[in-house]
Specification:
The complex is a heterodimer. By secondary structure, chain A is mainly alpha-helical. Chain A has helices at about 5-20, 25-50, 60-75, 85-105, 110-130, 155-180, 180-190, 190-195, 200-230, 235, 240-250, 260-280, 285-300, 305-320, and strands at about 140, 230. Chain A has a single domain, classed as ABC transporter involved in vitamin B12 uptake, BtuC (Orthogonal Bundle), CATH 1.10.3470. Chain A contains 14 helices and two strands. Chain A has a two-stranded antiparallel sheet. By secondary structure, chain B is of the alpha/beta class. Chain B has a domain at about 5-85 and about 155-235: Rossmann fold (3-Layer(aba) Sandwich), CATH 3.40.50. Helices cover about 35% and strands about 25% of the residues of chain B. In chain B, the strands form two sheets. A six-stranded mixed sheet of chain B has the order 6-7-8-3-9-10, with helices on both faces. Chain B has a four-stranded antiparallel sheet with strand order 2-1-4-5, covered by helices on one side. In chain B, a hairpin with a 2-residue loop joins strand 1 (about 5-10) and strand 2 (about 15-25). Chain B is globular, with a radius of gyration of 18 Å. Classes of the chains: A mainly alpha, B alpha/beta. The interface of A and B includes residues 187, 194 and 195 of A.
Chain lengths: ~325, ~240
């Protein structure tokens, strides 16, 4: 028996919708929310890193901007954090253009290097600038003043808000995948030289992908801060934030629609488990875990688990038929 | 005149890969560029395709100056090219590879797909086959299909028929003829003399960055400079023969 893609998607949607109702404890719901946030961030990264093959290792700069702007608006003017989301998106897109314009003129790894450099600069800058709370960071509303503050005691509303945003990111990515833009991104990833020879406006296409990816990553940052009510330079602009996006997408399958979801489904429970098992004694274990995963993916499965499944499933089906 | 290159030179530091080459191509022609390895024909070809910018000289296409136009702009104007080493989009199917080309003139997916399917049929490929599963002849054919989908007026073929078996070569020659019959002008860089003699009416011979001979294939193979370039000075015919 084979599962049609449409049925598979319906099944996945049903499982995601039912998850917090089936597992009502705060612990499992928190894992669910963390999983969704990781899936949103990685799916956003996937647009430029996976489909276009432009590996950004500094997406935390967009995540951080998305996280800081809502709380900055709240601290400056008392506005609900949600009001800062469009500003975070706009600033992230502007920053994406500033980085992309010079680096997309070059070939090779300059874009990756530039993203690391800019993200680290912003990280240091945020850590020393009093206007954004310096090393202490910014605090959001402790209790809800009204519904617009989106401050809830239960994890449940956050779960469904995050799920709706994930659905939006995935639908957008699916539309991109089907259209000329998506074809161009995959062509650029395979061979920029060949893509150019077919009339693909390579730099413009990469810029559009980066801008879209930056906007969604910024939304992920805003969601994070709306849920936690707090942001500091490490949780907003830290290198681990960027690395997690890359690893989640690469583990599941960069350049595939559901790859980041698969990656998040494996990595987040694994991370939660190691944190629970080792507690404070496991400080730094996340780095080891990420490093190990990078080595394993690079050595054995560069296409990620989704790619592995695609290769194995016809063989498994054949074997099942033969049996 | 569809394509005109005047006094084109390309230098890499002190080394002049192309030194003052001229080429004029009329609409509907098939022209061959030949020469020994390192003669400068590929560099000249890349200057025509917009991948390398000439150091001096001018190139015009359909009356427009394209000397410094990048390859994507030339593709939009109607100059298509293939590569010596096929660069197919490995993770895509044959159809999706060709659709990338078709999107240039047909921005909507359904139109691009329809156009791509027609080209795939013309080139004798299987639409749903993954590009990575194709052998060398299939990849070369796919490259031609992909560029045909851009609806070029001028097709630049860079050793697209090299490395094929005699049977595959015959099929490939037939394909180039079909493309030419569609009204597409062709400039072909090739080492295989059978291809040049069979397909082209006019040939330019390159050596050490210069055009040393031009004319019909039958004429150029008898030229002293051409024999010397390919076989060395010792093989020059004695005077009077």
């Amino acid at each position: 028996m084979t599962l049609s893609p449409r049925l598979g998607i319906c099944l996945l949607a049903a499982v995601l919708l039912a998850y917090p109702l089936m597992l009502p404890s705060a612990f499992y719901r928190d894992i669910g929310v963390t999983f969704l946030l990781a899936a949103i961030s990685a799916s956003a990264w996937n647009i430029v890193g996976g489909y276009a093959g432009q590996v950004s290792v500094g997406h935390s700069m967009f995540f951080g901007l998305g996280a800081y702007l809502p709380l900055l608006f709240y601290n400056l003017w008392g506005w609900p954090p949600v009001a800062g989301i469009p500003a975070g998106m706009a600033l992230s897109v502007a920053l994406a253009l500033v980085i992309g314009l010079p680096t997309f003129r070059l070939t090779g790894h300059y874009f990756s290097m530039a993203t690391i450099a800019v993200a680290e600069l912003i990280h240091i800058f945020a850590g020393t600038w009093d206007f954004v709370g310096a090393a202490i960071g910014l605090q959001g509303p402790a209790t809800a003043r009204n519904l617009w503050d989106l401050t809830f005691r239960s994890e449940l509303p956050y779960y469904y808000i995050f799920l709706a945003v994930l659905a939006l990111v995935l639908v957008t990515t699916a539309l991109v995948e089907r259209r000329r833009f998506g074809f161009y991104l995959r062509a650029i990833k395979a061979s920029e030289r060949a893509a150019k020879s077919l009339g693909v406006p390579v730099r413009q296409t990469k810029m559009r992908a980066l801008a879209l990816s930056a906007a969604f990553t910024s939304v992920a940052g805003s969601l994070y801060v709306i849920k936690t009510g707090f942001i500091d330079p490490d949780s907003g602009f830290g290198i681990l934030v960027s690395v997690q996006m890359v690893i989640v997408a690469a583990l599941g399958g960069a350049g595939t629609l559901f790859g980041p979801l698969v990656g998040a489904l494996i990595l987040i429970p694994l991370q939660t488990a190691t944190n629970s098992w080792f507690g404070g004694g496991g400080t730094g274990l996340t780095y080891i875990l990420y490093g190990g995963i990078i080595v394993l993916i690079a050595r054995f499965e560069p296409g990620g688990l989704f790619d592995l499944w695609h290769r194995l499933s016809p063989r498994l089906r054949k074997r099942a038929h033969a049996a | 005149m569809l394509l005109e290159a005047k006094n084109v030179s390309k230098a890499f530091g002190d080394f002049r890969a192309v030194a003052g080459a001229d080429l004029a191509v009329d609409e509907g022609e098939i022209i061959g560029l030949i020469g020994p390895n390192g003669a400068g024909k590929s560099t000249f070809f890349n200057c025509l395709a917009g991948e390398t910018m000439p150091t001096t000289g001018a190139i015009s296409f359909a009356g427009k100056d394209v000397t410094f136009a990048p390859s994507e702009a030339r593709a939009r104007l109607g100059i298509g090219r293939t590569f010596q080493v096929p660069t197919t989009f490995e993770d895509m199917s044959v159809l999706h590879n060709v659709m990338v080309g078709a999107f240039l003139r047909h921005p909507h997916r359904d139109d691009a797909r329809e156009r791509a399917l027609r080209v795939v049929e013309l080139t004798g490929l299987r639409a749903e086959q993954p590009a990575r599963s194709l052998g060398t002849p299939g990849r070369k054919r796919l490259e031609i299909a992909r560029v045909l989908a851009t609806e070029p007026r001028l097709l630049l073929l860079d050793e697209s028929l090299a490395g094929l078996t005699p049977a595959e070569l015959r099929e490939a020659i037939a394909l180039v003829r079909r493309i030419h019959a569609m009204g597409i002008t062709i400039v072909i860089v090739e080492h295989i003399m059978e291809v040049i003699m069979t397909l082209t009416k006019r040939v330019l011979v390159f050596n050490q960055g210069r055009v040393i001979a031009s004319g019909t294939p039958e004429q150029v193979v008898r030229e002293e400079a051409v024999i010397e370039a390919y076989l060395g000075r010792a093989h020059r015919r004695p005077a009077g023969q």
